[in-house]
Design goal:
Low-confidence stretches: none
Number of domains: 2
Number of strands: 17
CATH superfamily of the largest domain: Alanine racemase
Oligomer: single chain
Order of helices and strands: HEHEHEHEHEHHEEHEHEHEEHHEEEEEEH
Number of helices: 13
Bound molecules: pyridoxal-5'-phosphate
Distance between the termini: 48 Å
Shape: elongated
Largest sheet: 9 strands, mixed
Mean pLDDT: 97
Length: 382
Amino acid sequence: MAPLDVEKIASLAPSPCYVVDMGKVRENLAILDGVQKRSGAKILLAQKGFSMWSVYPTVAATLHGVCASSPWEARLGREEFGGEVHTFAAAFSENDVREVLKTSNHLVFNSFYQLEKFRPLWEGSGLSVGLRVNPEHSEGHTAIYDPCAPKSRLGIRRAEFEGKSLAGVEGLHFHTLCEQLFEPLARTAKAFEEKFGEFLPRMKWLNLGGGHHITREGYDLDGLVELVKYFREKYGVEVYLEPGEAIALGTGVLAGTVLDIVENDGKIAILDISCSCHMPDVLEMPYRPPLYKGFDAGEKEFTYRLAGPSCLAGDVIGDWSFVEELKIGQRIVFLDQAHYTMVKNTTFNGIQLPSIAIFEPESGELKVVRSFSYEDFKNRLS
Ligand SMILES: *Cc1c(COP(=O)(O)O)cnc(C)c1O
């Protein structure tokens, strides 16, 4: 696999800018395609994590469709991706359901109440309807990313199935993982089967959700293939996977610039990248983003705090050290910034949104596919 040409990307990209390398996207798709072909699974792109629709035609050549979390995501998938659109929400309004009926192929409800309330709308509509279940099996990640955490609203627990009608229900869905390798899925699938396996013979499909880091080094692809085949063969169901991150993993960077360097008990480099606006998971998850040519604080001679331009005191991305001193005007490139970034951007403080670009490693060409202006900020307010 060819390394990401960060120097070249940084020399061509405007600032700030998300740049997605199509070579890396194709590498991820090749892995996912192998899983589909060997296992018979259908893989969908979870748009929640990555909705860069200018690359949808490439992704759509391999994957079967998208998963959507709202009527707008469903519509985007229908307009720009094609294929199957699978829509789930923790709760739908009646208007949501009417919209989703126009754009989706699968509709997944999160309660028996919503299933029945909207039955007159979905019955006979041609959509395949399913239920999201909660296998009540946690794989030990942070509570805000754990749909099986106590008091979770996501998924119907087994006890609630007692005495309920499954008439018209064609599939079951669970989504409980986050950035995980195969073993947590294997354990979750076992817990799921113990609780809900008795319903599978009358289902047409089973959706194993997202959170599978299928394209990460070390993922047990053979294990996944066997697991999918097991459910397909034992129960005669179609099996879907709907990862978001796995499609975009390692494909994109966020390239910015050092605007100033100030001193307060150490050097602080102020960037045109705000973690609050442009990489909010740094604060929310929280996590430390990988930085090109950046080392842990104190490891190399020159240590800096990298921080954003906003008024939020906590708009601090983190502390890194460098072999050489940073200079005002130089490029700074955060790695692995394609997923859960563009989709979560805000214009807090009126800070400029990064442009979005595509890099073709073979031709060395960088194409800016979107840049934002003052109007984008103004039009979200009134
Ligand atoms: C978030 C989510 C996904 C995608 O998760 P990734 O971690 O990006 O793979 C898939 N399905 C549902 C229901 C989700 O909420």
